[in-house]
């Protein structure tokens, strides 16, 4: 079975390798590219906690002259993948969130006191939810510099368009609502809507699945939790099911 992996690099290549370890084929087709802006981090004075809701935020921090000071500050990472990136940078005091911004503010508020000081959220140009607003409603002071932006792909590669059009792609892995919207727009632009209806769309969450609405009624499978392990479980189940379907009688 062939899966199309739409994550930005380097996660796209990593996920491709994990899918291949499960015994399936995969091709990386990143639909977004990160542009890092470490210069947006210009002061850590008074900051008593950091928030990272993306690995790209930490990659931007890795290029900042403030990295040495930052790793001494407690960090709230949205999920395990972001926490892993933080450990690689040298952070030791890391609290791991629920895997998405839903409930993240409450988790942070359960650990910090608004009187402790300033929180710095290393943000992207497009945000899922209003984490800063939720924290401010709870009495926290939050700064939210944009330290990276995601640029959307303007077209699918020739090879991917051909593979989808010929029915060679069995499944598409979608890890964010924005990626799903970009994918749906490109499928329509390339006239591949009918072909997409024959592919299983493996989505990290219900929010990702809802972002495919422009394609109509396409096959969708949603992970039980917003985690890498959960998405791999769905990929394995979908791959095994499709393998069984194609076994000779």
Structural summary, described in words:
By secondary structure, the protein is of the alpha/beta class. It folds into 2 domains: about 1-30 and about 155-245, Rossmann fold, CATH 3.40.50.10090; about 35-150, Rossmann fold. About 40% of the residues lie in helices and about 20% in strands. It has helices at about 10-20, 55-60, 65-70, 80-90, 105-110, 130-135, 160-165, 175-190, 195, 205-210, 230-245; strands spanning about 1-5, 25-30, 30-35, 45-50, 75, 95, 120-125, 140-145, 145-150, 170-175, 200-205, 220. The strands form 2 sheets. Strands 3, 4, 5, 6, 7, 8 and 9 form a 7-stranded mixed beta sheet that branches. The protein has a 5-stranded parallel beta sheet with strand order 2-1-10-11-12. Strand 11 (about 200-205), helix 10 and strand 12 form a beta-alpha-beta unit. The radius of gyration is 20 Å and the shape is elongated.
CATH architecture of the largest domain: 3-Layer(aba) Sandwich
Radius of gyration: 20 Å
Q: What is the helix tally?
A: 11
Query: How much beta, percentage-wise?
Result: 15-25%
**Order of SSEs:** EHEEEHHEHEHEHEEHEHHEHEH
Unreliable segments of 5+ consecutive residues: none
Helix content: 25-40%
Shape descriptor reads: elongated
Summarize the structure.
By secondary structure, this protein is an alpha/beta fold.
What secondary-structure arrangement, pairings included, does this model have?
Elements: E1 2-5, H1 11-21, E2 25-28, E3 32-36, E4 47-52, H2 55-62, H3 67-70, E5 75-77, H4 80-89, E6 94-96, H5 104-109, E7 118-124, H6 131-137, E8 141-143, E9 146-152, H7 158-165, E10 171-174, H8 177-189, H9 193-196, E11 200-203, H10 206-210, E12 220-222, H11 228-245
Helix pairs in contact: 2-4
């Amino acid at each position: 079975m062939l899966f199309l992996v739409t994550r930005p690099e380097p996660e796209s290549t990593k996920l491709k390798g994990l899918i291949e370890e499960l015994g399936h084929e995969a091709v990386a087709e990143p639909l977004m590219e990160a542009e890092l802006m470490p210069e947006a981090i210009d002061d850590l004075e008074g900051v008593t906690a950091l928030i990272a809701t993306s690995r790209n935020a930490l990659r931007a921090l890795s290029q900042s002259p403030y990295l040495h000071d930052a790793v001494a500050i407690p960090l709230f990472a949205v999920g395990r993948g972001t926490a892993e990136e933080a450990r690689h940078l040298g952070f030791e005091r890391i609290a791991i969130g629920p895997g998405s911004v839903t409930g993240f503010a409450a988790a942070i508020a359960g650990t910090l006191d608004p009187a402790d000081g300033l929180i710095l959220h290393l943000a992207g140009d497009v945000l899922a939810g209003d984490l800063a607003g939720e924290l401010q409603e709870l009495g926290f002071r939050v700064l939210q510099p944009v330290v990276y932006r995601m640029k959307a792909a303007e077209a699918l590669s020739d090879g991917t368009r051909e593979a989808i059009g010929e029915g060679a792609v069995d499944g598409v892995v979608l890890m964010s609502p924005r990626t799903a919207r970009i994918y749906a727009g490109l499928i329509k632009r390339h006239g591949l809507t009918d072909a997409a209806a024959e592919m299983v769309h493996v989505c990290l969450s219900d929010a990702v699945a809802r972002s495919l609405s422009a394609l109509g009624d396409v096959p969708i499978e949603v992970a039980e939790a917003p985690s890498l392990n959960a998405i791999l479980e769905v990929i394995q189940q979908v791959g095994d099911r499709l393998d069984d379907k194609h076994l000779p009688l």
